[in-house]
Amino acid sequence: MNKNLGTTRDGFGKALIEIGTKNAQAIVLCADLTDSMRANWFKEEFPKRFLEMGVQEENMVGVATGLSLEGKIPFACSYSTFLINNALGPIRSSVCYSNANVKLIGGHAGITTGPDGATHQALEDIATMRVLPNMTVIVPADQEEARQATHAISKMIGPCYLRIGKYEVPNSTNPDNKFEIGKAKMIHEGPDITIVTCGNLVHIAKEVAESMCQGKDGHRDICIDVINMHTIKPIDKETLLKSLKKTRALITFEEHQIAGGLGSAVLEVITTSDPELLSTPVIMMGINDSFGQSGSSSQLLEHYNLDHKSLEQAIIKVVSLKRRKEK
């Protein structure tokens, strides 16, 4: 196994043990997916603070809310598609309406879940969670960022949704860097175009930016701002607008439905913050109003035009539109 590769679910599992060691109020609940969510690591260390809830996500969220009201810090874990869609009622009315200190952990999100197919590939969870009042939404990019993000949400007060997965991606987050909720990371800089991305696609955007800026493999000399927008809500308006005022060109790049996800959140910022940016050329890359399907992660990224080649083509197109507009 490549030591430079890791999954966000592994980062979450490691953080749970670290948090549990320091804070006796941390409790983990899981809906019959303990090993896959890496909640088993916490269970082995702290069996008296682990609750196996079975296939009953609604009840799990209700129990987590009650525990939070008694001063505990509950982490309620399940696959995103089951957690969000099966338990939306209690998430809205019990967790968010009460502003309860519940941490909702959604695993197996996005098409990179792979062979498990459409029933297990949550592609609408960011949209659903970000419209709920009081809810914080975080999508870490790699194993280390997921570990740091888990620590961060354990210290904040209020509802949070953490989106994780099983797809192995390169670990590029510096362990010494502090993770800040609501503060995006600029991971590559250039004046020609802004890419805003999150989660498993961050490494693709970074690799493409490095290649195109250096003119490798016949690419044009295009230099790119890549923003890891790990917190979808509250979104980092300052970093986003600063970049766009410089580049005047934009691509949003996400493993989620185009409608309601990261791209929608970014465009909301533009339309409500700076009228001068309304003419910015934009391509929103994501899932276009369809369900996922079975296949390997790489096959699905290519099929849904979320691979390196598709991003490169989109960059060339948007930069061309920008330069034509400037003439």
TL;DR of this structure?
The chain has 12 helices and 14 strands.
Structure description:
- The chain is globular.
- It folds into two domains: about 5-170, Thiamin diphosphate (ThDP)-binding fold, Pyr/PP domains (Rossmann fold), CATH 3.40.50.970; about 185-320, Rossmann fold (3-Layer(aba) Sandwich), CATH 3.40.50.920.
- With about 325 residues, it is an alpha/beta fold.
- The longest helix is centred in the last third of the chain and has 19 residues, at about 310-325.
- Helix 3 packs parallel to helix 5 (about 90-95).
- Strand 6 (about 135-140), helix 7 and strand 7 form a beta-alpha-beta unit.
- The chain has twelve helices and 14 strands.
- CA-atom Rg in angstroms: 19 Å
- In DSSP terms (H or I, runs of 4 or more residues), the helix count works out at 12
CATH topology assignment of the largest domain: Rossmann fold
CATH superfamily of the largest domain: Thiamin diphosphate (ThDP)-binding fold, Pyr/PP domains
The topology string of helices and strands comes to: EHEHEHEHHEHEHEEEEHEEHEHEHH
End-to-end distance: 50 Å
Number of strands: 14
Report the uncertain regions. Answer: none
Mean pLDDT: 95
Shape: globular
The strands making up the biggest β-sheet line up spatially as 3-2-4-5-7-6-12
CATH class of the largest domain: Alpha Beta
Oligomer: single chain
Q: What profile does the largest beta sheet have?
A: 7 strands, mixed
Number of domains: 2
- Report the structural category: alpha/beta
Assign the CATH architecture of the largest domain.
3-Layer(aba) Sandwich
